[in-house]
Amino acid sequence: MTDKNEVKLSDLRCLCDAAIFDFETTADIDPLDQVIGQERAVRAITFGLEMKSAGYHIFVTGPEGTGKTTIVQDIIRKAARDLPTPPDWCMVNNFKDEYRPIALPVKPGHGSRFAKSLNRLVADLKIRLPKEFQTDPFREKVVEIQKRHGEQKKDHFAALDRSALEKHLKVEKTPSGYQTLPIKEGEPYTQEEFEGLPEQEQKEIEKRVQGFQEEIQTVMREVSRINHAQQKEIQQLADESARFVLQSRLDLLRENYADHPPILQFLEEMQEDMVENVALFLPRQQSPEENGDGAPPAQVVEHSLNRYKVNVLEDRSGLDGAPVVFEPNPTYQNIFGRIEKKAFMGTLVTDFTMVQSGSLLQANGGFLIMEVASILTHPQVWESLKRALQNKMLCIEDMAHDMGLGTASLRPAPVALDVKVILLGGYEPFQILQNYDPKFNKIFRVRADFDYEVTRTDETVRLYAQFIARVCRDERLLPFTADGVASVVEYGEKAIDSKNKLSLRFGSVTGVIKEADYWARKEDADRVTAAHVVKAFTEYRFRYNLYEEKIHENYVEDTIMIDVAGEAVGQVNALAVYQMGEIAFGRPSRITAETFMGKAGVINIERESKLSGKTHDKGVLILSGYLGRTFAQRYPLSLSISVTFEQSYSGIDGDSASSTELYAILSSLSKVPIRQGIAVTGSVNQKGQVQAIGGVNQKIEGFFDVCRSKGLTGRQGVMIPAANVKNLMLKKSVVDAVKEGQFTVWQVATIEEGIEILTGKTAGRPDKEGNYPSETLYGRVQQKLKTYLEQSLKLKKPYVSEK
Fold this sequence. Notes:
Elements: H1 39-50, E1 58-61, H2 68-81, E2 88-92, E3 102-106, H3 111-134, H4 136-166, E4 169-174, E5 177-184, E6 187-188, H5 191-196, H6 199-256, H7 261-276, H8 297-304, E7 311-314, E8 324-327, H9 332-336, E9 338-339, E10 342-344, E11 347-349, E12 355-356, H10 359-362, E13 367-371, H11 372-376, H12 381-391, E14 393-394, H13 399-402, E15 415-416, E16 420-425, H14 427-436, H15 440-443, E17 446-449, E18 453-455, H16 458-475, H17 482-495, E19 501-503, H18 506-522, H19 530-544, H20 546-556, E20 567-568, E21 571-580, E22 583-596, E23 601-604, H21 605-608, H22 614-631, E24 640-645, H23 658-670, E25 674-675, E26 678-680, E27 683-684, E28 690-691, H24 696-710, E29 716-721, H25 732-739, E30 743-748, H26 751-759, H27 777-802
Parallel strand pairs: 1-16, 1-17, 8-13, 13-16, 21-26, 23-24, 26-29, 29-30
Antiparallel strand pairs: 2-3, 2-7, 4-5, 5-6, 9-12, 10-11, 14-15, 18-19, 20-25, 21-22, 22-24, 27-28
């Protein structure tokens, strides 16, 4: 064992010296007003926001907890303040097709004003128009029209009477029409008189009566024409009067919206419709029959007057700049809008006043932020969103009707869409959409990728302090002292398992800051110190580590068999990481290897029992490559190897134990025992180089906890890949134990270095013929492999001769 492989005490943990801060508390520094370590993402977002061409919508990727949502909203809100405020949107009736209402853009902040103006107009017309039709000039004109046409009708009826007298007939009006009667000396025949006439005379009178009926029909057609002309003239008079009243009141609205041609066109069409339906504004005499079980006419009239209302879909009052909308629940209706219905006179009805906008229209002229995972869980949303962005048109539709459900509904005219959509998501949905959706890359051309770490420099440490100051300001927390900030910085290092990096997962960092404030207030402190930060982290772990403690009890009680002292052949302590939510911890597992004659090669018991994953299987298969490269260059290997994780009954994956398995095999072949006080982690390649692994801190701390519970001897420790030294951020108890000589951390780059530390024996170097010195460990392995081969050949000869 050589001291050169021992990791220096200074490399076990990176301490943040509070002396580098030139403040007493975070209340003395400016809160953070920029983004830490996300230059790539910020530049991409800025580019996407400034690109006005079609298809440059933004897809933001990155791990959870990196502050994507907050950062994106901050950047977009700053950009939105410099943009013009888009118009309000009002839905109005389409007087040409009531099933296709129209959305009108109205200058910002005037949508509600426009709606109120029309409401006042309708209320005013319900008073003014009846008064207009009750004025003396209007009534006199109506009387004059009626009198003139009445005289014409009188003349026709007088001529009809004269013609009847000439034919000895008389015309009488009855409830069923006009009746022609024969007369004698000015009086109609009685029934007896008529029947007493000769038959021939009766026929002549009947013929004369029938012939006169044609004259009556001619007169009646002319009277009908006169009545129609009279009604038309009265209607024209009413239209002129109504148009005069409407014109004077609508001119005020036209002046206010002179620069809005769509509104002027709507007002013109509305005026003509009001003139045509002026009766809606007049009082209606209600007959007794109308007081039955049905709805009163007043209700019907009021419902009909809804055609002149304005449905304000979006009101930009109070908005400075472009809108920024975050849609937390992107259902179809929440994004595209909905068409509601209500019961009226025994049936479900709808009109343009019951159309509601969605977040796309709310964000029109600005920015819409959504999470892609939520979008993909709602049917039809993704396809409809792509269609809207490609066509730059928003269609508010009744989904129930489009799916063949419900009754006929409205189909509002499409709305011109000018919105920038920003989707937030992880790498997996981005890759799926990019690879399998051909339209995705044409619409979302900008990718903003958030990092989860940043290089640790004096500048980033200073920004960390400003970040803490910002959280304290925004959340109204107690200020942090310099040593409190230093502890948070160290937490940021440990969270990323690197002395040279700081975590950008500010969600968890903010949680530590808030909890440290809680413990400071529990002590009635006026500031947060390092002790409070450590307390916050300790308490957080205590709340979540019940499972960890239960597993640890199995080691203490020897339910799980682990030796942390002594030596054993073909037996090594490997290290595994358990992940329970956000809590990860390491614990040792015993690996054993048995070697014997045969041709099976390396038998992985986990793989044979289907308890291992693909990565673990790959690591075991690599062992055959290393053994062949090292010991089978001049003659074949003739052995079988059985490798397993003892007391493992659940799935195993990962290749971080491949070097451990190789050490166990070498020990079994050489019969050289391995120190059980040393645990090992690290993957290996076919050339015998030890490669970096994950969770190195949890693995070291986990083995240390077991050793401490079973008793520290001063000869215990963990052997890690040299490439993982930069990741060391061990807890204080481990560092103190190393400092006191009770525990050791070794670094190795090759299998040869590792086996020498584990056994205290030299691995050996081969000569030109590929032979290792017999006294070395590899020499013993080589000799054992030769013995296996020779013995197998001896056993094979008798078998061949017998055959």
